[in-house]
Sequence to fold (500 residues):
Amino acid sequence: MTDPARPRVAVCGISLEASTFSPALTTAAMLSPRRGREVLDAWDFWREGGSLTDRAEWIGVLQARNIAGGAIPAEDYAALKAEILAGLVAATSEAPLDGLVLDIHGAASVVGLDDMEGDLALAVRAVVGADCLISSGMDLHGNVSHTLAATVDLLTTYRTAPHVDWQETKERAARNLLDRLALPRGRRRPAKAWVPVPILLPGEMTSTRQEPATSLYARVPEIEALDGILDAGIWIGYPWADEPRNCAVVMVVGDDAELARTEAAALAGELWARREEFGFVAPTGSFEEVLAAAVESPAAPYFVSDSGDNPTAGGAGDVTWTLAELLASPALAASGKRAIYASVPDAAGALAAQEAGVGADVRLRVGARVDDRPAPPVELSGRVVAVVPGEDNLEVVVRTPHVDVVVTRRRRPYHLESDFTRLGLDPRRADIVVVKIGYLEPELFDMAADWMLALTPGGVDQDLARLGHRRVRRPMFPLDDVSGVDPLAGAALFPGDTTG
Ligand SMILES: [Zn+2]
Fold:
């Protein structure tokens, strides 16, 4: 019998945001699986001396994670899943598990399989048994299928985008689980109201920095604070995968099933009623239009989001289309302005520049190794001005007549000022900074004197209609005419231990 003050809780999962419109694949190795103690060391709250460390016997099994990318090959997923299940079998052979934290993002894809998270949750449940409470703290760009909603007992999600509350959310998922495990058996499992809402929008239209998301998400803690309610969430969903589950979801969990149901329906109704108000977080245009605006603007630094290949949303990251346009732009050349471009991954190009060394003139062909659909590899002639080897990457800067181009050995995001200054680049003093990103992350947003989002091609194209979804539920806003659609038609209520 487990000590009720110190329940046994396993931690496992696979976190990825995967575009099915990208030819890229995310292998098991790219997901850098952590095992055992390393799983716990990844989070402050249950590592040595953390806020929740002493409240449970934490058992790290396997947690695999990558920012975003393409789908996971079927055999790689099978291997990770088998290892997770074997770890849970071993853990349960000593004593039953009281709880399990399923650490997932919610928008992973596996080649040939829909709903990875639902599949993993079912498999995990089969090992840990019906008594074990399962909790997940997810990304609001994740998906909650009917299967996932039915199988996981406690679901919560981020309440901000950009996700400044990501650690807080992961901690809340763990704390909610511990709080419920402190209740007597037979009173632990809350009811769950689940409402899939037929809306499919990119994150760049649903940032909580702007309406209507600001006020919709402000409703979440209000609902959570109600008597009989434990948690509430809006998963705005992931639009760059073509699976039947892809859409927005509202969930409310709590012991008062009827209140959970009415609050979830009300919040889903508000989301639906305000769907037309979602708009891009910044002015948008074709790259030509956006670059023309940047060149003409007196504001500096002027940031341009190269959004169609955003690696943190699932783009391959090595699409060269925008860089080729930038290097060849007569408007930029005539303006006398200089631009920074971050970044294009190309292992051979980065290594060749490193070998040539700082000060050398090089001629490279870079990018389009993974995603060459929009454009072929781009010719890059200039001087190597920085070579920065890292633990698992290599970054170089090639200075061309009008653009400083960051070339990396591996795909990586540029979200922080230090990501640039480490390379000897000063984005504050640049005229124009073009970044593969969607909405600007906080440091870049604060630094930008002005910015525009360029609707460039790639695996995470912001122009969803260009992608051609075939398998999502229809009709779907904004792809279809949704007049006459009942947004609550798919709602379900999963009862808890105590209904009422
Ligand atoms: Zn997200």
Q: What stands out?
A: The pocket of zinc ion is lined by residues 139, 141, 163 (CB under 6 Å). The first strand starts at residue 8 and ends at 15.
